[in-house]
Automatic annotation (TrEMBL):
The lineage of its organism: Eukaryota, Viridiplantae, Streptophyta, Embryophyta, Tracheophyta. GO terms for cellular component: cytosol; mitochondrion. InterPro entries: aa-tRNA-synth_I_CS, aa-tRNA-synth_Ia, Leu-tRNA-ligase, Leu_tRNA-synth_edit, M/V/L/I-tRNA-synth_anticd-bd, Methionyl/Leucyl_tRNA_Synth, Rossmann-like_a/b/a_fold, tRNAsynth_Ia_anticodon-bd. Keywords: Aminoacyl-tRNA synthetase, ATP-binding, Ligase, Nucleotide-binding, Protein biosynthesis. Residues 299-486 form the Leucyl-tRNA synthetase editing domain. Residues 118-250 form the Methionyl/Leucyl tRNA synthetase domain. This is leucine--tRNA ligase.
Amino acid sequence: MNIPFCLCNQILPFTPFSQRKFLSFSQKSRSFNCRSKFCYDPSGFGSLGCYRFEVRKGVIRSSVSEVQEEKQEKQVVRRAYPFHEIEPKWQRYWEDHHSFQTSDDIDTSKPKFYVLDMFPYPSGAGLHVGHPLGYTATDILARYKRMQGYNVLHPMGWDAFGLPAEQYAIETGTHPKFTTLRNINRFRSQLKSLGFSYDWDREISTIEPEYYKWTQWIFLQLLKRGLAYQAEVPVNWCPALGTVLANEEVVDGVSERGGHPVVRKPMRQWNLRITAYADRLLQDLDDLDWPESVKDMQRNWIGRSEGAEMEFLVLDDNGRERDIKITVYTTRPDTIFGATYLVVAPEHSLLPSFVSPVQSKSVDEYKELASRKSDLERTELQKEKTGVFSGYYAKNPANGEAIPIWVADYVLGSYGTGAIMAVPAHDARDYEFAIKYDIPIRWVLNPDGEESNDLLKAYAGEGIAINSSNLAVGLDINGLLSKVAASKVIEWAARTGNGKKKVNYKLRDWLFARQRYWGEPIPVIFLEDTRESVPLLETELPLALPELDDFTPTSTGEPPLSKAGSWVKTTDPLSGKPARRETNTMPQWAGSCWYYLRYMDPKNSKELVDKKKEIYWSPVDVYVGGAEHAVLHLLYARFWHKVLYDIGVVSTKEPFKRVINQGIILGEVQYMAYKDSEGNYVSADSVNTSEEIHQEIIPEEKVMKSGDAFVLKTDPDILLIARAHKMSKSRGNVVNPDDVVSEYGADSLRLYEMFMGPFRDSKTWSTSGIEGVYRFLGRTWRLIVGSPLPDGSFIDGTVTIDEEPTSEQLKSLHRCIAKVTEEIEGTRFNTGISAMMEFINAAYKWDKLPRSVFEDFVLLLSPYAPHIAEELWFRLGNSASLAYEPFPEANPFFLKDSSIVLPVQINGKTRGTIQVEEGCSEDDAFSLATQDEKLFKYLDGKSVKKRIFVPGKILNVILGPQNVKAGVR
C-alpha cells in the first residue's frame, strides 16, 4: 500500500505523526497538500509556502508545475505571511493616530531620549539599501526607549540646499526648488514605507525661509562677535561650476562633481573664525562618548602644536641684506643649526619681493602649476616633492649662514606662516627634497649623542644636540636634550629679537562663502559709496532667496545672485544710502550645523529654540551617521554650538553626547576572471602583468567556492577575483529598497540590514540573504497565527492558548528577553536577532503555545519588525498599539542555570563529571553516570557494593568483586 507522506517524514522524521495531521488528500490526482507548520522548514528558517506531492507507485514527485498553474488561475501569490496587507495597514494607523508625535506638553519629570540620524540630502536617485542601515538602528533605539517609559524625540528633515540640485537645474532649466521638493517627497515616501517611527510633525527643511531665518540669525551673532569677517584668501576656484569648492570637493585637481578643472586663486571671501575655538574644540573631545577614530581625526584636523616663530633676514642674489624678513614656524627649534634652506609656499604674500629676475619666469610657471592642486594633493606624503629656486637667500640667525630660498608646493600658505626652515637631516620631506635638488644636509641631533654621517635617511626623533653652537651670537645648545635645547633656542630668539614662542594649529578659519544660487542668502549689504559692510537688522530676517530663471555661473566670476538686479539693489535702512546685497550664499554645511536644535522647537517664530525645551532635550543622546562626516560636519556643528553656548542660547557645551558610525553596505559581490589575448581563462594567482590581459565578469551561477577562494565551476583551477564595491549609479550596483519591500516586506529589509553583521562594520549586500530573515518572520507568523488555509489566507486570530507556561517555556523566554535587551543597549543588533531566532526554533518543539509567552516575544520583536509585531499583538487579543507597551524585563529567577556539574568518583577516586539538574536524585545521577562514555568503562561488568551520594556535591560509587552488570546493587 502506498501511504502518502510529505517533507515532515523526510526533514523531521522524529516529529510525531499526530503533529503532521494537516493533510488534504485528493483521490483524483492521488496527491495531497501538507499544511502542517512543520512542513515549512527544510532549511531551519521555513520555506515560502506549502509543497504538493504526488504518489505514483510509491515514488513521491513534486507537482510544482501544477501548483504554478493553480496560482496563475487564481492569481494568488503565496507569501510566507501577508506583509503586503499588514504593512500599509499599520503605517496608516500610525499616521492617523500620530503614534510617534512628541508633544510639546510632556511630563518633563520622565527621562528623555533624543536619537537622531545625520541630516540626509534628498538626491534625485532616492534611497538605496545602504541608507536604511542607520535609520533602522535609530528606529530600534527609539521604539525600545518609548517602551521603557522615556520621552523620545526621533525627528527627520532635509539638508536640501547644495550644489547637486543647482547643477541639475542648470542642466535641465528646472528651478532647484521644484526638483528638491520632488526629491523630498520621494525620500519621505520611501522612509514611511519602511515604518520608521519619526515624528513627522517636526519635519524641517533648510530651504524653507522659516528655517534659514535662524541660520541667518546665527550668522549675525557671529558677525557681532568678530567671528565672521571678510578677507582675501586663496581658494579652489572652478570656472566651469562658477564657484569656490572646499578641499574635499576637489580630487586630482578637478571638481568631484563633473570633473572640471580647479585652480587656486585669491578671492575676497567670508570666513568664520573657528580657530578662535580651537583649544576648546580639542579639549572637550575627551569627555565625549564618540568613536576614538573620530576623535583622533578631529584632533589631527585641529593639529595643535607648540613651537616657535623664527625670523630669517632676506639676502639678494649678491648676498646683500634686504629690508625683508621671512617668518617661519617650526615645532623643532632645537634643530635650527641644521636649517640648510628655506621653503615658502607658492602663494606666499612676500614671494614677489625675493625672486631674482633670472628665476622670475620659472617661479611664475611653478605658481601656475601649484594653483591647480588642492591642499590635500600638495601635502600628500607619498607624492614626489617639486620646487623651484627663488634666486635669493636668507640668513640663518643661529649660525649666520646664507641658505637658499626655495618655492615648493608641499608648504601651504594657509598653515603657519606659509614658510618653513628646512632641516633635511631631521625631516623626511625635507630630506627627499634636499636629495633631489642637491642641497646640503647637516646633522645636528643624534639619539645616542655621537656624531653621525648616515645620509641614507632622516632621523626625526628627539635626542642630543650636536654641531649646534655659535658663541658669536650667544647660542650654544650642544649636549642638551631636544626639549631643553628647544626651550633655550626660544629664550635666545625672544631675547635677541629673532623670534618668539608660538602655538599653532593646522585648523584654518572656515571659508564660508559660495558663488552659488541655491543656498542661504548672507544677511549683509554693502554701501555703494564706501563698500562698508552693514549687517541686516534682525527684524528684517529672513532675507528670502529671490526667484531666478538663470542659475548659470557668470563669465566674470560674479555669483548667479548678481543677476537678480532688483533684489541686489537696496538701501541702508539706517542711513538711507544706496547699497547692494551680498550675492554670495552660505555653504551647504550652514543649515546642518544647528538643525538638531530646531527639532526641539520647530515652529517657534520668535526665537531659535525655547529655553525650557532646549534644557530638557539637550544634548542629543545618540547621533548616528557615516564616518565621512567625522571632521567637517561634526567639527562645524560643535563650533556653532559653542558660540551659541557662549551667548546663552544653549545650555550644554557639546551638541552630541554619543556618536555612532554605521558601516557601509557594499553592492553584491562581483566575480571577475582574467583572459589572455587568445581568450583563454588565466587564474588570478598566475596573471603576468607584462602580457595582454582582459577582464570578464562571471555570473554567480558559474562560480563556486573553494576554501576561502572562488573558482570557475567548469574549471576549478581558474581562481577568480571576488570584489564588492560601494553602491553607486556609475557601477550599476545600486539596490532599490522599494524593490526589496515589494518582494519581501519592510520588516524583512529592516531585519536583514541589522542581521548582516555588526552594525559598525562594512557589509556586502546579498539579495538571496534576505530570504533567511523573511522565512524567520514567516515561521513566527505561522507559529502564532497558524498555517495558511487552502487559498493561502490565514485565520483572523491566533492558535495560542490561555494556559500558564511551563518552567522551561519561561526559561526560554526570559533568556531571550535578557539577550535582546542587552544587545539593543550595546547596539549589537545582529546577535539580538539571533536570540529571537533561537527562541522561535525552541517554541516549534512545544506541544502547547501559551498566549502570555508570545505576547512578551512579540514586544521583543517590535522594535526590529514593527509591522508584523503590531498585527500579531492585535491578533493576540490586544486592541491598542504596542508602541508604548512596557518592554519585557527578564526575571533573574529564570536566568539561573539549574544544571550543575557533579563530580563522580569510583572507589574514592574522581574519574569524571556529569551534568545534572538541581535536586537530581541519587538514582538519576547514577543512571546518568552509567550512560557517560568515560565513566562507563569503569562500571561496565562491575558490581556496585555501595553508592555514596551528596546532593549537588558528589557521587561516589564503591565497586564490589562480583562480575555483574552495572546498575545492580
